[in-house]
Design brief:
The protein has about 220 residues and is α/β, with parallel strands linked by helices. It has eight helices and ten strands.
Length: about 220
């Protein structure tokens, strides 16, 4: 086996016990090994014509879900990131997204116990995960699997936070140092930390685990 095959084997072995734990928590998990399979898994869960809320997720960009949704014309998209819209319209779309039929997103970290750990800037992404949209689909690479909540918080502060700040071109301290300074900058995007232990509403939260390194 080459290195790529060994990593794929490792990710699958770690995904299997994780899926058992997720099922016991009321989530509906699925494991796929490739980005193309991840894209297809997400799209298979979205009914044609549904209102679909997009959130800030590099994973969905990387697997091709966002480009497909934007270009297919098969869905009623609620897209706060459409080029050319102003801040007020972006905020209005984020609010509308909370009543969408489907929300597609990712999670910043997932623990071996099946806890979903996130940090959000405005709060619409984590709010929608918790309550609002009828169906929530989360796609994530297995590189986001961590041991426990302590490691998850470290990942959010030292990996996801600085990399997303850099992606957005924000003049926050972490874009200079590469690590979190727990800043008080007006443009800080690490404002709402959440842990989702379980899914209360049956058949609502779908988790697509992808055996690749994806997102931040």
């Amino acid at each position: 086996m080459d290195d790529r095959d060994i990593k794929a084997w490792s990710y699958e072995k770690r995904a299997l016990p994780l899926m058992d734990k997720l099922k016991k928590k009321g989530f509906i998990p699925q494991y796929v090994s490739t980005t193309e399979a991840g894209k297809n898994a997400v799209l298979s869960l979205i009914p044609e014509g549904a209102t679909v809320a997009l959130t800030g997720s590099q994973t969905l960009e990387q697997v091709g879900v966002k480009p497909y949704l934007r270009g297919s014309g098969r869905y009623q998209l609620i897209d706060p990131y459409e080029p050319g819209i102003d801040q007020a319209e972006g905020l209005a779309r984020r609010k509308r997204g909370l009543s969408a039929e489907v929300m597609v997103s990712s999670t910043n970290a997932i623990t071996r116990a099946g806890e979903l750990v996130n940090v959000d800037g405005m709060g619409n992404r984590v709010a929608g995960m918790i309550f609002g949209p009828d169906k929530v689909i989360l796609a994530l690479g297995m590189n986001k699997l961590v041991e426990d909540l302590q490691e998850a918080r470290h990942r959010l502060r030292q990996i996801a936070g600085p990399m997303n700040n850099k992606r957005l071109g924000l003049a926050n301290p972490c874009t200079e140092t590469g690590s979190c300074a727990d800043c008080s900058s007006p443009s800080r995007i690490c404002n709402y930390y959440t842990v989702i232990e379980r899914s209360f509403i049956p058949d609502r939260m779908y988790i697509i685990l992808i055996g690749q390194d994806l997102g931040y």
